[in-house]
Amino acid sequence: MKKHWFLEKENTKLKEKLTRALGISPVTAQVLINRGIENETEAELFFKSSLFDLPSPYLLKGMDKAVERIKIAIEKKEKIAIYGDYDVDGVTATALFYTFLNNLGANVTYYNPDRIKEGYGVNLEAIGKLKDEGVSLIISGDCGITAWKEVEEAKKLEVDFIVTDHHEPPEILPDAVSVLNPHQSGCPYPGKEITGVGVIFNLVIGLRRALRDSGFFKNNEPHEKVSGGFSRGEPNLGDYLDLVALGTVADCASLTNVNRIFVKEGIKRMLNSKRAGMIALKEVSGIREEVTSFDLGFKLGPRVNASGRLKSASVAVELLISENLEKARELAKILNQENSKRQSIEEEIFLDAVSQIESNPSFLNSNSLVLASPNWHPGVIGIVASKIVERYQRPAILIAIGDDGIGKGSGRSVEGINIYSALSECRELFEKFGGHELAAGMSIREENIDTFRKMLEKAVEKSDGDFISKLKIDCLVDLAEISDSVVSELDLLAPFGIGNPEPVLLARSAQVISQRLHKDKHLGLRLKQGDKIFDAIWFNLKEPITVPNRIDVVFTPEFNTWNGKREIRLRVRDVDW
After folding, report:
1. How is the chain split into domains, by residue range?
2. Which of 161, 234, 271, 495 is deepest in the core (most CB within 10 A)?
3. What is the C-alpha to C-alpha distance for residues 127 and 162, in angstroms, rounded to an integer?
4. Global pTM?
């Protein structure tokens, strides 16, 4: 599907004001404006934001009750269980809180459900198992907001529950000791975009503050090394930001406001991480220098996700809490192998899903896609759903039907169509469901799938989505404006991702001096405009093309280092002529 170019409207007055006040280029100023910056103060904060700009964790509704209950559990040596989801967000939330509590000397264990056998969320059997192990306090991570029945059953077993989650709350909340979720009614916390690991990190900030105030760290002398190379004593919470950054990016969260600070600060610390598991994970992913948000989302994240998708998330948790580098390297190799298996399975399902769509005219003409098969692995259908959405530009739900006739579904959506809201209109068909605006999951009986397909189509038809693949362009430039200083300024706007995309610029009527196809899928170009000449590269073309001598080119400028030499390169997004 050809993309429609959408050139952002220029705000000349504000652009000039930001250019003068901050001493930046007009290009950088316009990119800032397109990210929602409205004045000099906001622009300066965007450049210079740090951990000191984080909102108080006590703005999260229920924080005081959660902290007080955990303090009591630590003091009385109660056994605490971290109950985390099996995806990267849940795994990092589990590893972070486990490491933190373990380093305090707390009696702590963790539990992540098996994706295939137990499915998403809190389940009664697991609660019973934890009770039998002596657990008296369960703290969920990245799940539990819909577990009101399970929390009631935990009460009967005399097990207290603290729910930490970031998914959309239902009408009935669990009657837990505390519920931490920025989306719940009456919660004033401004960082609504935070993920499950972000909620847990806020809990850790609040807990450390309370412990400090109570004199818990008065004998604050480093003891023996524990959990991944950290020392006992008052924890340096900056050492935990590597996990927050990984979970946040891998969960496809918006990299704005609080999340932008989390990821920016986390990436800094990943260069020289103290965590044995992170060192090993970087090694097996081929990352030797700086980590980028791309690395988090497409190299580290998928490997952490692999064990939870195909088997159990325990391998990933063990990696991230490992105290021994050699053991961590062994676990990282296992995850790497699992990731290769996942990629192979994923490709088979994708080809099958495309075949279903292309062979059925009703699918091609619909506004949504609901696809199902008994031959699909439920652990990877979410990834495939994302690829289907990218290809067909409409919401897609993939359902893996089990031997018991229950289908486990995973859905993804396009900008402008809230898939959670659409699924809410079909709720009577589900065994259970949950999610947020762009991603959701559900379980459904096989006999209800056709009805669900029709109901979802009606729900999507009522939405305001336009189903057009847009390529948003920050501003029109002359290639003479692209300099080392401009590219360096634009780099300061990182980390890039959802909510804070990479700068995208447009140059019209650029002269093509030469072109060459690399490995049959990457188009290398030499472009000239005026006196400026740049190398450009268009990666991963769907099919080889030859461009004419003059083109309009949409690109992202970047530094490319090769053989010790650093030069500006234009990474092509699209061309027209």
Report:
1. 57-336, 360-461, 470-576
2. 161
3. 13
4. 0.87
